[in-house]
Amino acid sequence: MPDWVSLDHVAAAVNGRARAVVTDARDGDVVTLTFPISEKQVRTTIGGSDYTLTMRGNDVLEIDPPGVVAPLYQRAASRTRDVRWVSRERFVGDRRVTW
Fold it and tell me: Fewer CB in a 10 Å sphere around the end CB: N or C, the chain?
């Protein structure tokens, strides 16, 4: 899980059935984790200049000041709450890891 995710807001399911904790997933099971992607502002110094970054998850949506010649990170469209579902195939090891 990304470090910006609050574990209190994570919902888990195995094969479409909600689970409080996923500890018994088997080969072939579909594990789904859902969580909100919150927006926050981060103040930082880059190259000796102070900036305020508006972030959503790991993405920078806006940087202030944006720059004069070529304004950076003008991503207002990314601020919509419309969900853009993306399927990803992830690596699954051939050995079981026991924690």
Answer: C
Token digits of residue 20: 């409080």
**pLDDT single digits (tens) 37-83:** 888 899 999 899 999 999 888 888 899 998 888 887 877 766 666 66
Please confirm whether the linkage preceding 36 is cis (ω < 30° from 0): no
Residue 6 CA to residue 29 CA, distance in Å, equals 25
pLDDT band for position 91 (cuts 50, 70, 90)? confident
Taking the whole predicted model, whether its pTM rises above 0.90 is answered as: no
CB-based contacts of 60, cutoff 8 Å, min separation 6: 53, 54, 73, 75
Distance CA 36, CA 6 (A): 9
